[in-house]
Amino acid sequence: MTNKTHWENVYDTKLPNEVSWTQEKPETSLQLIANCKLPKTAKIIDIGGGDSNLVDYLLEQGFENITVLDISEKAIEKAKFRLGKLSEKVKWIVSDITEFQPEETYDIWHDRATFHFLTEKEQIEKYKTLVQNYASNYLIMATFSNNGPLKCSGLEIKQYTIRDLVGLFSDKFKIIDSFYQDHQTPFNTVQNFVFCIFKRI
Where is the Methyltransferase domain (predicted)? Predict the structure, then answer.
């Protein structure tokens, strides 16, 4: 089964309360984006946004240039349906992140829970190159910590510490904030995440 087939199946067969990453309101991501203090015209991309509610709240706050990328067309269909007419204000991209070919740079590159699915060195290097070339201002990265799960949605993942992430992205970015945070899943288990916020050097 390919990655795309796996994720299309997940979003086709499961409700939001049946997947671990669901957040009714992504408070931490919203606060970190607000902390960047960029204008509402700032270009924001949500990597692996799927049918996350982040886009709903960003639209509500008046952000005008939002892009959501996900490998699953079904996930994006769900988000569009939920947003209705508002979905026309968003750029939607169906792509595996390692095959993404951006046509613009982004003031905020936000990724909560996609990066840890890249377990091969080649995939990680491709992602790093994308960030270096297309994240023009801020990088907000949230991924499973070294105290987090070893698998998610039946797939192997790669765990990270703050030091690991700094080591990966320090060529072009300086870290401005970092912390660990527990995420309570809809079925009352706990996953430990590491958050790192980087500013372009």
Answer: 44-123
